[in-house]
Amino acid sequence: MSESLLTELMDRFCVLPGVGPKSAQRMAMHLLQRERTRGLQLAQVMERAMREIGNCERCRTFTELAVCQRCQDPERDISLLCIVESPSDILAIDRATEYKGLYFVLMGQLSPLDGIGPSELGLDVLQQRLDSPGLEELIIATSSTVEGETTAHYVTQMARAAQVAVTRLAQGVPMGGELEYLDGGTLQHAFKGRQQV
């Protein structure tokens, strides 16, 4: 016997991060009880997005264009290239900083156990960017997980071979953080990355 349409709708909501069966049930019930028109609009936008949004040929972020608006912006500093793991990292950096360089999105981290190698991260495209004229500094903004550090090391080797300077985002004690509540790994990074004042 096939599952009901309502059950299928709730199951589909569960593909979203952080959405379990109870949250999925609440969302489905809310749309059906109070927001059918907006639910239809949501479905239409989701279908269009899944069909029309691809990846930028230069930086690999999500876009409807062959080359995203950020990469086409003549005001961006082409001498700086920031390596991030996902498009959401770009939004976070743009929201919190004055960074005006370009980006390259890996869409993940090196993880041989999960079958994610250099080709899955578009490192061949990154190599072309490293070889392009005008690039002076590669800023690595990967996470401080084991996979993130492995990815950072691999990308650093690529940049050094292309004779591009490499920097890494500072890691360690957050603003307003108290030492007694920090984990050992964070404190270790903070001590290794200490700077003269």
Structure description:
The mean pLDDT is 90. The chain has a domain at 76-168: 3-Layer(aba) Sandwich (Dna Topoisomerase Vi A Subunit, Chain: A, domain 2), CATH 3.40.1360.10. It is 45% helix and 13% strand. 16% of the residues are buried. The protein is an alpha/beta fold and 197 residues long. The longest helix is centred in the N-terminal third of the chain and has 17 residues, at 36-52. It starts with a helix and ends in a 5-residue tail after the last helix. Strands 4-3-5-6 form a four-stranded parallel sheet. It has a two-stranded antiparallel ribbon with strand order 1-2. Helix 7 (146-161) links the parallel strand 5 and strand 6. It is globular. Helix 1 crosses helix 2 (21-34).
| Helix/strand structural class | alpha/beta
Q: What string, H for helix and E for strand, traces the elements in order?
A: HHHEEHEHEHEHEH
- C-alpha Rg (nearest Å): 21 Å
Strand order of the largest sheet: 4-3-5-6
Instruction: Work out the strand percent.
Output: 5-15%
The shape is globular
Number of helices: 8
